[in-house]
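Archive record
______________

***
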Amino acid sequence: MGSFAAEGGAQDGPVAGRYRLGRRIGRGGMGTVWQATDELLGREVAVKELHTEDRDLTLREARTVALVKHPNVMVLHDIVEQDGRPWIVMELIDGRSLSDLLAARGPVGPREAARIGVALLGALRAAHARGVLHRDIKPANVLIESGTGRVVLTDFGIARVPGATTLTGTGAFVGSPEYTAPERMSGGQAGPESDLWSLGVLLCAALSGESPFHRDSLGGILHAVVYDEIRPPDSAGPLLPVVRGLLERDPARRMGADEAERLLNGYLETGRTPAASVHYTPTQRSVPTPVPPAATATPPPPPGKRPSRARTALLAGLALIVLAGAGAAVAVTLLEREGGGADAKSAPRNGSSAGATVSASQSPPQAPATATVNAPPGFHAVQDPAGFALAVPDGCTRSFEPPRVFYYSPGKEFRIGILIQDPQEGGPAGAMRNSATQAPDRYPGYRDGKVARSRHRGGDAATWEFTWDGFEKSEGPRHTYDLSWNEADKMYDIWVSGPEAKSAEAQRYFRTALDTFARIRPSSGR
């Protein structure tokens, strides 16, 4: 693969004798993306190093995607080989992913969501016309170009032609569960309609900051996608006909691209969504059925209701995927690390929640419904619906930015972040080191980073401390204190960021948050 520096991306000479790598600008399960210089043409490009051993398949799919030409699809310039590994050369977009923007600025309004939707529909129509399914439509794979606002669909890394399945030959799941269509969950064939379902989920996430299928475990997500009542966010109101049409579980009745585009364009032109030309029956309300434990092959039907053949296939597929987790065969990107910026901590990867789902029969210690928090002067106690209590400085306001909770001081001068997730491979120290490895690409001016093992509340813990330059130049240097620890069946992470000139005050907020933190039973709301 060549010799790479840990972060700089330099190797012994340019890739394929032409593309000299610079800084790393992204990394996912399918590959690592580097900013590079095309020394032949003298232009900046993005070069993706693919993490796969199936060279022929990758090259065949890359050539297929290269045929997709549309203003809202990232341009593929070249496919080369280096040390027997394929590399894809693409246009370099000066902008940020939609997931980054949502984490930094919060949800978008209906008009911006409609604009993004129209652009992505055009991109998908061009791909589908070439027989290419994207299969991973999500905010992290949508770029918004700075200055122009151009919407660009990227990362066709797991694209397939129609008829491909969600499960690979090794039993690995392909895609991001919260954005995956129910027919793909069954492990069966999927068509263009599956991408349209994912677009419907993306619109909900853009409008509210969260997918309607967000849950705390892989099993919960799968169950929500294939069975639970679908509840679009209240903020989807102006675009509700489109969202409901795209989130129709039966792909035969799902709204098509032409109809969705017509309704979104109508809203952009008039501020009101036209009536749908075809009546799309809303998803039927159903009685939720618990996700089956690992020993159960087929989940029971709802009381007094016999499941249809299609529903049985979906639920059997769900059970198959959950069972696969027991053998570590499910390669699911669950709540992916979408680079939400310096104060947006990362969520679990690589299906870490699958193991928690399989072992659900081992009941963890039950947290109390409330906790007594002794807030010092200048602080007040909060009982957060996400499942914890602590003391925060007076004047702080809460912001739920899935899967993280923030408490911001006025003007966001100080930021307290809390993340609750399933235990990670390598423990808190491994999770911290992984975040620190990605920090130079996520924290402007990242420096003086220190990760150390520790103990906290009787469990394994790790600390991470660093300085950076803030998201905006006007912020000036900032300092972050971070501690992560294992307790009961979860890994908890608390961090505080504040101006470097007020690091003593930030450290006091940090120590107070840690000293007063208590687990409580999560409420139904977030």
